[in-house]
Design goal:
This is CopG family transcriptional regulator. InterPro entries: Ribbon_hlx_hlx (IPR010985). The radius of gyration is 26 Å and the shape is elongated. The protein folds into two domains: 44 residues, no CATH class; 37 residues, no CATH class. It has three helices and no strands. It starts with 8 loop residues before the first helix and ends in an 18-residue tail after the last helix.
Length: 94
């Protein structure tokens, strides 16, 4: 497929300079940029879908247990004797 782009002189100059630095023709460099951008977008879409699937899982009990475990682990791993998440403040400050 042939694609024609109308670029500003600044963009054309920038792309030409970068292509020269990479040892590529202007066309090859622009094609590489497009491929890289598409691959990155696909990767981001996969990650977003994975995160959304975790959000959509409705296992509230497991999430609650995980949260309580993390809070307990953070309190136990402190150098200070003062707990980071005191039980008497649960529901008040956190």
């Amino acid at each position: 497929m042939t694609l024609t782009l109308n670029l500003t002189s600044e963009i054309e100059q920038y792309l030409s300079q970068k292509a020269t630095e990479k040892g590529l023709s202007l066309e090859a460099y622009v094609l590489k940029l497009l491929k890289d951008a598409i691959l990155e977008q696909k990767k981001q879409t996969k990650l977003v879908d994975l995160l959304q699937s975790w959000i959509d899982e409705e296992d509230e009990q497991e999430q609650k247990e995980t949260g309580e475990y993390l809070i307990e682990a953070l309190d136990q791993d402190r150098l200070s004797e003062r707990p980071l998440f005191p039980a008497k403040l649960k529901g008040v400050t956190w």
